[in-house]
Amino acid sequence: MAAAPMTRATPVSGTQISYLALMAGCGIILLSSDAVAVPLSITQTQAMSFGNLAVPGGPKIVTMDGGGNITAGSQWVLGGTQQEGTYVVGGDPGLIDISVGVVNTCHASVNAYGFTGVFGTGMNPLNNIQVTPASNIQLGSGNGDTISLGATISFNATTPAGICNIDFDLIVDYH
Amino acid sequence: MRSTYKKWLFGSLASSSVISGAYAITSNFSMAALIFSEPFTITETLSMRFGNLMANAASTYTLSTANAVTATGHGAIVGGIQRAGSYTIADTAGVANIDIAIAGLTADSGVTPQNPVCSYDGGPDLAGCAINNAASPGVAGKVLKVGIQLVVDGTQNNGASATPQFNINVTYH
User: Fold this and answer.
1) Chain B residues whose beta carbon lies within 8 Å of the beta carbon of residue A55
2) Which of A42, A147, A159 is best to mutate for the B interface (most B CBs within 10 A)?
3) Which of A73, A93, B125, B134 could cross-link to A140 by cystine, CB 3.0-4.6 Å?
């Protein structure tokens, strides 16, 4: 089987189309790879960090906004680094939705929720996007394509002392 | 980092026609590791001492928070250092009121501890050491002085030693 040359079709307004030409048998079948030429990507440029927290005597929360500011429960922050998470979205200009999916934590007593922040240079607020995705946000608007995200951590007296790892799924839907 | 792509095709195989479509990308990101720490510390600043007690003499010795030991029964204090235990309780978060209790009294070699008494932050002696809802000791900490009674069964020969134990429990709100 010999590789067929790439074939470019007539451009379609507002989109780019790439084609993979495959030779099968004696015919050529063109497969569209979809209406997005550049794959969508999300790259973490700064990990969200809450630092060192005190194990409390009862249920407590610590909340950080999209600017890395502790807005609730600062008395339970003993030290370490507090900073928002930043994630760069790559892809062709277009509308996107942003949400948070599955969250995994270190212990049943620890939860992370209320993911809140901004997309771009403060142009698009992201409010509790695990519950309500931020919809119809313009990617490639010239205002930057960085998600800045904070969250709320809840914990209680049963939270074990030591290192706690939390991860979460960040989801971008391209329309 | 874990990433997965989902792709929904609203068209089908095509030769040159436009396929409408949408991409979703899901990337898994880890936060920087959280570190949870107990905000309270209990540091022994002076160990509790009864000194040297008479051998082979059943007795009850009472150590006060003012470092005095008295004996009842057949025993007597024959030397050494007598002092109450002194412990600094600190709250690195400085936010929580606390309860203090003495528990886990454990006998050793025929010597049984009982009836603890405590003075917290220079306050009066409290029999049983039940200190409830005291203000946070703060980052600098406050001193808890502990006295206790020892019941000696008289089986201890000359030169014997005993190390009865107790726990200081600090519960924060």
Assistant:
1) 36-39
2) A42
3) A93
Q: What is the tens place of the pLDDT at every residue in B125-143?
A: 999 999 999 988 988 999 9
Taking the C-alpha atoms of residue A97 and residue A36, their distance in angstroms, rounded to an integer, is 16
Residue A26 CA: distances (Å) to CA of A33, B12, B93, B104: 22, 21, 76, 87
Contact B37 A159 (CB under 8 A): no
| Chain B contact for A44 (CB, 8 A cutoff) | yes
A50/B contact by beta carbon, under 8 A: yes
pLDDT digits (tens, 9 = 90+) for A76-100: 898 899 999 999 999 889 999 999 9
Contact A78 B92 (CB under 8 A): yes
DSSP A159: P
- Burial category of A151 from C-beta neighbours within 10 Å (exposed 0-12, middle 13-18, buried 19 and up): buried
- DSSP line for B100-128: EEEEEEE-BTTEEEEEEEEEETT---EET
Whole-complex ipTM: 0.76
Asked if the C-beta of A49 comes within 8 angstroms of chain B's C-beta atoms, the answer is: yes
For residue B81, how many other CB atoms are within 10 A of its CB? 11
